[in-house]
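Researcher: Next sequence.
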Amino acid sequence: MKSSPANRSRDIERQAGYLRPEHCVPPSPRMSSADDMWFIRDCCGIACGVITWLLVIYAEFVVVFVMLLPAKNLAYSIINGALFNGLAFLALSSHFKAMCTDPGAVPKGNATKEFIESLQLKPGQVVYKCPKCCSIKPDRAHHCSVCKRCIKKMDHHCPWVNNCVGENNQKYFVLFTMYIALISLHALLMVAFHFVFCLEDDWTKCSSFSPPATVILLIILCFEGLLFLIFTAVMFGTQIHSICNDETGIEQLKKEERRWMKKSKWMNMKVVFGHPFSISWFSPFATPDQGKANLYQYVV
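Model: Next structure:
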């Protein structure tokens, strides 16, 4: 049976001669330090990340200074202000964590003779070497051309968080999409109420800005909120679907053979968000604790 080009490129690594460990230089202690903050120096990704924060700050400005502060109902302003700002804070915190958390990078240059010997491989056991970053690739790891590293359970590289979405930061990326979708929906609802209020009352009294400026600011916020609501809601849905089926975006795209044990959808959620279920699932400040949720269970 003829194999696909993708399979041939991986099957060639099954032969020990192609590992060529003598060509790999061990990483320096500085390079492999666990104390270093993870950050990808990619111009496009950095620009997208800055734009994301600026758009959230713009939404904050319009919601607070155009809609809530001029409102006559104090309770309405306090409740909606606290809710919107709380969700915005969680969204930006999730974005920061998704951007600055190591997604599961495989140590670079670890395909050395010493490391391969330390694995104590059995006869016939298969190991894969990435020719680009000279590392031994675990199962379900893929190389990212932007991060220039192999990433465990890599789903995709997202320029909006300037990072790969992988084993260690998928929770933060899902929370980011969820909270952005929620603040977008909340902003759209407040804009609708504000338009109704201004139509029933004098436009000069419903905002501290001039009527034309108020309308322009609200229309821009509507466009931004609708666009981000659709985009992040779809992304959130696809991520949850991918997590429940325990299949990353790359694995779906490449239609890779499933060699890991099938688990329940609930157990797959625990693998990403932590075991057991708790309020920490919704916190970007809580590191997932898999506990009994085994990350890798392969069919032998």
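Model: Residues 163 and 285 are 18 Å apart (CA to CA). The radius of gyration is 24 Å.
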